[in-house]
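Exercise: predict the structure of this protein bound to adenosine monophosphate.
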Amino acid sequence: MKVLVVGNGGREHALAWKLLQSKQIEQVVCAPGNGGTAGIKGCQNLPLAVDDFEGISQFAQNEGISLVVVGPEVPLAKGITDYLNSKGLKVFGPTRAGAQIEASKAWAKALMQEAGIPTAQAAVFTEAAAAKSYVKAQGAPIVVKADGLAAGKGVIVAETVEQAQAAIDAMFGGEFGSAGKFVVIEECLIGEEVSVLALTDGLTIRPLQPAQDHKRIGEGDTGENTGGMGAYAPAPIATKEVMARIQKEVLEKAIAALKAKGIDYRGVLYAGLMMTPQGDFKVLEFNCRFGDPETQVVLPLLETPLEELILACVEQRLAEMPPIAWKQGAAVTVVAASGGYPGAYEKGKVITGIEQAEALGTTVFHAGTNLNQEQLLTDGGRVLNVTAAGETFDQALAQAYAGIQCIHFEGMYYRRDIGHRVR
Ligand code: AMP
Ligand code: GLY
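Solution:
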């Protein structure tokens, strides 16, 4: 089988790596891929943008691709699945209608409210004055969200009413482009976050191991939000009992609500939840795709061949699959980032030490790299995900940190406290 993976981050590197562990997979093509996917045996990069639907479709048809796995939300929200399905290709990832669950926070909130899924109280606004007076009446802390996709930057957790009002002005002022045409204002929830990625064929939904990521740039979970500075799975806070409740109260309700809207959702439904100190939970957001970097810690633990699960979703026979099998133990990933990220940073720095890190037993997924005449260079804010799986969380953590210490590029930054909540 030949599989095409759409995307160029650490998530897509991990997907390609996992798929190629199966004997069924002869080749993986990544569009556009990165310096890491270029280096895996059996994997080839295809220099096409993730929204070049025509180019991707032509390649897939000409080269006998049996399955397209879409990594990022942007092509899903633009309708890559609808387009490729119309050309007779099999795609893992929801249609444009389904991707609204991530691409419009107002739409997702309405779906949660209709389905009775626990979530923060919220109101949706189309102009600044009403939004500001709502914030004034509610008080702070309060959360202001741009409705549309904003590369993870469209959420402001405001500590004061003034901050919230400034965020409202920025959003309606066009700072987030069309993402800010609607603004969702919601109750600020306190607690610990957990990411539950679930596989679905539109009828049945099965969660993967719960994960936690560290979104903030600074140690102690301080400073600016990022795409994620590290992650681990399983997340001990999501016990078996909690996962059983999430299945019934969130995942099954969401799939039923999508189906009731006539949406045939086949792909990943990712629920980002806030766990309250009382052991309850509320949904913060849904994503229509695998999490990044959560995927990099969930897939190393997966024992069932990934392509079997993905095909069962695409062919709508997930209910017939045996329970998903997992390796014992835990996985941890630590992100090596460019100095300055999530603000301005430089690219093109020479990366060394990956072989040494891998000799210690880690797997280094590339998030933002490229190969330039055999030389590996930094090419993004998040550069590498140094990942280790072990029989215990402590072993995995120690190995990931031993690995990252082998790696060097000018300005490299990483957090030293990934996993601190587990202790
Ligand atoms: P979202 O893209 O909606 O998940 O928001 C990104 C991040 O903002 C989440 O992972 C949380 O850290 C934070 N966040 C979102 N909604 C809330 C909320 N209602 N209360 C507190 N924090 C939130
Ligand atoms: N790690 C957060 C996300 O993938 O949205």
